[in-house]
Amino acid sequence: MAIQYLALSTMIVLYSLMFLGGYISAAGLGLTCPEWPLCPNGVMPSEEYLIEWVHRLAAATTGALVIATMAAALINKNSTWKIKLTSCLATAFVITQITLGALVIDLKLHALLVAIHLGMGILLFSMVLLTTIFAFRIAKVPMTTKA
Ligand code: HEM
């Protein structure tokens, strides 16, 4: 997939994940699935844990997409140092964010951790947004032809 569409898909999935996280928090559903990494009934979804299950599935998908975008940025020969930097930072932030998510559950929604989880989500979104902008810029650069 072209790097700009990969980056754009990552941003859309991440935005939906953050929207869902906000809903979970505001609706008081944060501990409906009290275990990590799986809910008590295992890998399959169930009505009881559905919203948390979707949040975790979207987090795993986001993680894979962020890493794929970084790999695409690192191997693309038109990549600038800027897209390499923002995509590597996005990868570091997504790994931190998923780890924080696990801690939020383990420490039963400790207020400070929930706030850090939100703050890290915003930092992650900024890096993914910048990566998407840079990806559309490098996609415009004409392909170099061999002499
Ligand atoms: C890329 C990964 C993730 C992102 C971007 C993300 C983002 C968010 C956001 C924006 C919120 C709303 C926070 C608020 O309104 O204060 C949230 C809530 C939450 N997230 Fe995540 N999240 C991610 C991964 C995870 C993971 C892996 C877990 C682990 C199970 C998790 C567990 C939670 C929980 C329990 C809440 C609700 C906290 C509460 O009830 O106040 N998140 N998430």
Poorly predicted parts: none
* Main β sheet profile: none
- Provide the helix percentage: over 70%
Q: What is the domain tally?
A: 1
Averaging pLDDT over every residue, what do you get?
95
**Measured distance between first and last alpha carbons:** 27 Å
Instruction: Quickly count the helices.
Output: 4
Q: Write the element-wise H/E pattern from the N-terminal end onward.
A: HHHH
Q: What ligands can be seen in this structure?
A: protoporphyrin IX containing FE
Shape: elongated
The counted number of beta strands is 0
Q: What is the gyration radius calculated from CA atoms? A: 17 Å
As a percent range, the share of strand residues is under 5%
Structural class by sheet pairing and helices: mainly alpha
Q: How are the SSEs ordered, and which strands pair?
A:
Blueprint: H1 3-26, H2 50-75, H3 81-106, H4 111-140
Helix pairs in contact: 1-2, 1-4, 2-3, 3-4
The structure holds protoporphyrin IX containing FE.
Protoporphyrin IX containing FE binds at residues 14, 17-18, 21-22, 24-25, 30, 36, 55-56, 59, 62, 94, 97-98, 101-102, 104-105, 109, 114, 117-118, 121, 124.
What does this structure look like?
This protein has 147 residues and is an all-alpha fold. It has one domain. The chain has four helices and no strands. Helix 1 packs antiparallel against helix 4 and helix 2 runs antiparallel to helix 3. The radius of gyration is 17 Å and the shape is elongated. The model has no long low-confidence stretch (mean pLDDT 95). The structure holds protoporphyrin IX containing FE. The site of protoporphyrin IX containing FE has 26 residues, from helix 1, helix 2, helix 3 and helix 4.
